[in-house]
Write a structure and sequence with these properties.
alpha/beta, eight-stranded parallel sheet, two-stranded antiparallel sheet, 13 helices, 10 strands
Length: about 290
């Protein structure tokens, strides 16, 4: 199956710091082109949860052929977890395909498994979605090849016996998000990616979940349907008032002043750093939407 040249030109390289990351089942090759055309910043072809056990070999073979037939395409691949019979064959396929721009390892909780993924020579995106994985975040995040952490809240809720979106579940999951954000920052990684939201028809709830993630320091979100892309983009877009404030701050910066006032507020080095981050995020978001 060949994809259009228009799609191929758009997907020669993944966008920098993708904000919206759309899953597409590896068993549905016809949906890959639609995903590439959807406006998502990045596409993950899923060989794990979205594919039935009986279809996994056929899905891997189909994705392998698709990438060979469309060398201009760049996608991420979510492989099957370490310990499954599909782990090694999935890695072998990813290793030989230039179109695989990164590998997402589900149920990431073991540094040795991450090392095997990194041996493919592709950027590694660990997906933390187990209790053990949360506890191992400081070790996982320091593994060579890891470029960005991602969060799987639904699987973690199931393992812990939590009711999704309940008050207690939110507290536990926010703790996990905090661990991901702090460890990513301390090691110089890009901020992590938020979990999927299961309701594809409730745009307001998707945007609210994405805004909550943004407020906690995450800078992207996994999506399971194109309908979720627009609310995710809105949620992660820097506020216009913040951008205007940041521009005014930077406009007043001089080389000699350690601190100054703006709107009767003291502006010093940490505040200037925040202003620069806001403008950098705005510029990156603008490039992603162009």
């Amino acid at each position: 199956m060949m994809v259009s040249s228009e799609t191929g030109e758009h997907q020669k390289e993944l966008k920098t710091s993708p904000c919206s990351i759309l899953f597409v089942p590896g068993s549905r090759l016809d949906r890959i082109q639609k995903a590439l055309n959807s406006g998502a910043d990045a596409v993950i072809v899923d060989l794990e949860d979205a594919v039935a056990e009986t279809d996994k070999v056929a899905a891997r073979t189909g994705v392998d052929r698709f990438l060979a037939d469309n060398p201009q395409v760049r996608v991420l691949i979510r492989i099957n977890a370490a310990g499954t019979e599909h782990f090694v064959p999935d890695l072998e396929m990813c290793s030989r395909q230039p179109g695989v721009a990164g590998i997402m390892l589900p149920k990431a909780e073991d540094v040795h498994a991450l090392a095997k993924v990194a041996d493919c020579g592709k950027p590694v995106w660990p997906l933390v979605e187990t209790a053990k994985g949360v506890l191992e975040i400081p070790q996982l995040i320091r593994c060579p090849g890891v470029v960005r952490m991602s969060f799987g809240a639904l699987d973690l809720c199931a393992e812990l016996g939590l009711k999704p979106q309940s008050e207690g579940a939110v507290k536990v999951l926010d703790h996990c998000r905090c661990e991901l954000v702090l460890n990513s920052c301390s090691t110089g990684l890009e901020p992590p990616v938020e979990s999927v939201y299961p309701d594809i028809n409730n745009a307001e709830a998707v945007e609210q979940a994405a805004r909550h993630a943004r407020q906690m320091g995450l800078t992207g979100m996994l999506c399971i349907h194109p309908r979720q892309l627009e609310p995710v983009h809105r949620a992660f877009e820097p506020d216009a008032e913040d951008v205007e404030w940041a521009r005014r701050v930077i406009a007043k910066v001089t080389g000699n002043e350690a601190a100054f006032t703006l709107d009767d507020q003291m502006i010093d080095a940490p505040v200037v750093a925040r202003a620069r981050k806001i403008l950098a995020a705005f510029e990156n978001h603008s490039r992603s939407r162009s």
